[in-house]
Amino acid sequence: MRLPTDLSLAELQQAIFQQLPPEFDDASASVLVLLAHVLQCPKTWVLAHPEARLSPEQNSQLSQLAQRLALGEPLAYLTGRQEFFGLVFKVSPAVLIPRPETELLVEVALTWLRELGRPAHILDVGTGSGCIALTLASQVPNLRAIASDVSADALEIARKNARELKLSERVTFLQADLILETLPRFDLICSNLPYIPTRKLSTVNSIAYEPETALDGGPDGLHLLRPFFRQAPRHLLKPGLLLAETEAGLGPETLTIARENFPEARTELLQDLHNRDRMVQVQLA
What are phi and psi of 66, to 5 degrees? Predict the structure, then answer.
């Protein structure tokens, strides 16, 4: 995408709008984020200075980013950052972009942790960018966490986020496939493992850019959730809480797997704001 070099910020926004696909969602907000990113200033400054102009270098950078946006690359990868639960996380194509739907898991976990009455030790399986473990640690001062992922590249991003949020002393990162047998028991175990059935991957708009290994749950979407639930009982304290995200169409199957492995627990399926099955909750008394 080539943008004229003599346009004001307001005119640049209009020029980009005209070149984005008609079906593009939230075009206005996305272009505003790009302008703020290129200018390295708050979005409020961009809105307050519609007459301002970019330098030739900034214009070139914006043109390249706008072209990638028009081709479908996620905005978070263009800026390298994504907001989640009021915090800003570094992201790259090595990690899944944190979704607003995952904030439900954080909200449920926070309510339970605040009622626990003792310093908590948690395990976050498949941590990706670290958004779950780090958000919980930022909200619960006495919490300590182990956050694991099979991907070394993802863990590097998560460690950067921990350093930026000044949480490295309380969140430990571990490269592991699911739950290592040598790990201790935890007050809370949470996971956002890949759960999209392979046949549905093509429906994910960002599949060309996000790591497929962070999305692909195998033929039925339960390839990793089955062993996760088999391993978890050995590592959950009493009282204890387990929270596991699942695909909207796999709620009943995931709930059945959870109940088979936690027959004495209180186990239920939770829905998101759109009334779609989103997460299995297991509580040990």
Answer: -65, -35
Peptide bond into 211 cis (omega under 30): no
CATH architecture of 9-72: Orthogonal Bundle (1.10)
What's the token pair of residue 111? 């309510």
**DSSP-assigned letters across all residues of 23-85:** T-TTHHHHHHHHHHHHHTS-HHHHHH-TT-B--HHHHHHHHHHHHHHHTT--HHHHHTEEEET
Q: Which amino acid is at 55?
A: S
Q: Which residues of the chain have pLDDT under 70?
A: none
For the entire predicted model, the pTM comes to 0.93
- Calpha distance 132→244 (Å, rounded): 12
What is the pLDDT at residue 21?
A: 87
Q: Among residues 91, 187, 93, which one has the least CA distance to residue 131?
A: 91
Distance CA 204, CA 125 (A): 22
Instruction: Quote the distance between the C-alpha of residue 110 and its chain's center.
Output: 17
Strand pairing of 277-284 and 236-245?
antiparallel
At residue 2, the pLDDT reads 80
User: Is-same-fold flag (9-72; 82-284)?
Assistant: no
Residue 31, phi then psi, degrees to nearest 5? -65, -40
User: What pLDDT is stored for residue 204 in this prediction?
Assistant: 84
Say what the pLDDT of residue 3 is.
87
What pLDDT sits at residue 17? 87
Domain-wise residue ranges, the chain: 9-72, 82-284
Fold category of 82-284 in CATH: Rossmann fold (3.40.50)
CB contact at 8 A, 35 and 62: yes
